[in-house]
Amino acid sequence: MKTIYLLISLLSFSVLAQEFTGSFVVTITDQNIRVTSPKKKVDTVSVIVKNDTFEDIRSELSSEKGVIKRFNLKSQSSKSIEISFKKIKTLFYVSVAPPFQAVELKFSQRPYAIPPKK
After folding, report:
1. Among 10, 21, 73, 83, which has the minimal tally of Cβ within 10 Å of its Cβ?
2. pLDDT at res. 62
3. Is the dihedral of CA 110, 84, 26, 79 positive or negative?
4. Based on the structure, what is the number of domains in the chain?
5. Which domain covers residue 50, as residue numbers?
6. Residue 117 predicted with pLDDT over 70
């Protein structure tokens, strides 16, 4: 019984520890886009985009100043991009094709999911 309690406790601590990462992790599924953000704001951050769908996605990272990077992401793959926050204030992930609403990448946020617009 003590072993089961210890195992459950360890699993719950590992889940809590994974709520924040050192990078933005954007996971695209058929139903939503899920974002996990860094705990603290930094000057340079990695944005990891994971495509968990069965189709290729044309994407872009943009700021208030315009498009920073455009890229294609094959089905069931991921891509990591380094972004400098020294000259920008906001960062957005946008799925261009298939179209999806822009998702603002915010520091110090708990994981959040954006459902598609209806």
Report:
1. 10
2. 95
3. negative
4. 1
5. 2-114
6. no
